[in-house]
Write a structure and sequence with these properties.
Layout lengths: L2 H28 L6 H25 L10 H19 L1 H5 L6 H12 L15 H16 L1 H8 L7 H7 L13 H25 L4 H12 L20 H14 L4 H8 L3 H5 L2 H23 L5 H16 L14 H13 L12 H19 L8 E2 L2 E2 L2 H28 L7 H12 L20 H15 L3 H4 L4 H4 L3
Antiparallel strand pairs: 1-2
Length: 496
């Protein structure tokens, strides 16, 4: 292993994080709202600590010339440790600024931001200074594009060495990355991300939100993160005269950003044939429509709500869950049990591969369903030869096996982690529904779960050890298991 290379690159990554902290500190310094003194000190102190540590790492790494591809072993370590350290330093502002969080809560909140989960241990969000709330939203915006993908896009001197980092950063890992040089593709993704962000913010401002709230909710929407500046989340605006329009606008961008971003790149390059082959997007939209109509129709049929109100509630909740954003409007904990089962399924599925959404992804669901269909048919027609394709690409037996292994491991981790959370919270009276909901919310990067961690609750009542464990699950889910788990098996990456 080349430790100097690892130190140098992670140091630059942390230096970028320090710059982002300082930018939020400048906002707090110039903000017209009073009471930002604590935020100013906390953000600049955090930026200083992170910056000094980053410069020390860069200095220890020395001057490097990255002419070739970064070795896979170093790339895996950079991705895993990069995310862990970014989350650790990202929690400093929450610890240093009143009302303050302890180290476990700060790490949880930071991990929830960078992994675009949206779960929170803040009991009163509106009591925090606006500078801290801006940093909170910024962590999601950076995590949405993938801090390592952003790193590749900005630092052009990496050259071909960027490929290893790009492919190990789960947000935009896809076979479509070969349509152009990785650096050019990452720049295209960044431009698309910025365009979506600007359009969403301008639209929210036109609908009556202040620039601060418009920007914060935009960063949470396009990153499919879900942090809000209000205790009621987006529900704060539901009673406005144009509340339905605000919900619809945010729903649109949550849905767009849960699609494969590389599809937007294909569209910009006018590759219409490739666009028509996109199955992930069609399935995701179809799943949303099916679940929205089922939940809205079912609630209206049983007299729980009028159809139009049920349709409005279901539309927002289904999209915010399947996109793993986690914004809140209606309290789905009050809905019938069967509807919560459907929402749990959406939590597992998530968005498309190559999006900012979490979950095990629609693409893997497609591979599973098509493989299951083939195996059922093959049981009666054993000599029949199948060709499995997804998004126009042929899926070979190795890819099918990897998908099945991933889904099996994903579900096993969910079951095992539910037991771990129950063990950690023994004696607190926690329910199985809350344990399972917390695990699903964390590993699928959803935000709210079920029970006492539902859409109107938070995670503050959980023990410190549980919060740290759930934060680790967030990172595990964000990196799609392997990029983090491999750090615990050095015998595997030593062979690269």
């Amino acid at each position: 292993m080349n430790p100097r290379l690892v130190l140098h690159i992670i140091g630059i990554l942390l230096l970028l994080e320090a710059v982002a902290m300082a930018a939020c500190g400048l906002f707090a310094l110039t903000d017209v709202v009073t009471g930002e003194a604590g935020a100013i000190a906390a953000l600049f102190q955090s930026a200083g600590i992170t910056g000094i540590f980053a410069l020390a790492m860069i200095g220890a790494g020395g001057k490097l010339s990255l002419k070739g591809r970064i070795p896979r072993r170093e790339a895996v370590i950079i991705v895993g440790l990069g995310w862990l350290l970014s989350n650790a330093f990202g929690g400093l502002p929450y610890m240093l600024c009143p009302p303050g969080l302890n180290w476990a809560g700060a790490f949880f909140e930071s991990a929830s931001g960078f992994t675009t989960t949206g779960s929170s241990v803040m009991t009163d969000i509106e009591a925090w200074p606006r500078g801290i709330l801006l940093w909170r939203s910024t962590t999601q915006w950076l995590g949405g594009i993938g801090i390592l993908v952003l790193f590749v896009a900005v630092l052009s001197y990496l050259g071909m060495g960027s490929k290893s980092l790009f492919q190990n950063e789960s947000s935009f890992r896809s076979g479509e990355s070969g349509i152009a040089r990785i650096h050019d593709t990452s720049l295209s993704l960044l431009r698309i991300y910025l365009t979506l962000s600007a359009t969403c913010a301008i639209g929210l401002r036109a609908m009556g939100l202040s620039w601060f709230n418009a920007v914060c909710h935009t960063m949470a929407a396009v990153s499919t993160g879900g942090f809000s500046t209000h205790n009621k989340s987006v529900g704060f605006y539901s009673e406005w005269g144009n509340g339905w329009l605000i919900e619809l606008w945010i729903t649109l961008f949550m849905l767009l950003c849960s699609l494969n971003f590389l599809v937007f790149v294909v569209l910009l390059r006018k590759n219409w044939r490739r666009f028509t082959q996109e199955e992930d997007a069609k399935w995701l939209i179809g799943i949303c429509l099916l679940f929205i109509l089922t939940i809205a129709g079912g609630r209206a049929w049983h007299g729980d709500a009028e159809f139009l109100q049920a349709l409005r509630d279901a539309s927002f909740v289904v999209v915010t869950i399947v996109s793993t954003t986690g914004f809140g409007t209606a309290d789905y904990e009050l809905w019938p049990a069967w509807s919560k089962v459907l929402l749990a399924l959406l939590m597992l599925i998530g968005g498309c591969s190559g999006s900012t959404a979490g979950g095990f992804k629609v693409g893997r669901l497609l591979v599973f369903l098509k493989s299951a269909r083939h195996e059922i048919v093959r049981a009666f027609r054993p000599n029949l030869v199948f060709r499995l394709t997804v998004n126009g690409n042929t899926i070979d037996d190795d890819a099918r096996a990897r998908t099945m292994f991933f889904l099996t491991m994903y579900l096993m981790i969910c079951v095992f982690s539910t037991a771990v959370v129950g063990f950690m919270e023994a004696g607190t009276g926690i329910s199985l529904e809350t344990c399972g909901g917390a695990v699903l919310a964390a590993i699928s990067n959803i935000g709210p779960g079920f029970g006492t961690v539902g859409p109107t609750e938070n995670f503050a009542h959980l023990r410190d050890s549980t919060q740290v464990f759930l934060a680790w699950l967030m990172i595990l889910g964000r990196l799609e298991l392997f990029a983090l788990l491999v750090l615990f098996f050095p015998s595997a990456w030593r062979k690269y």
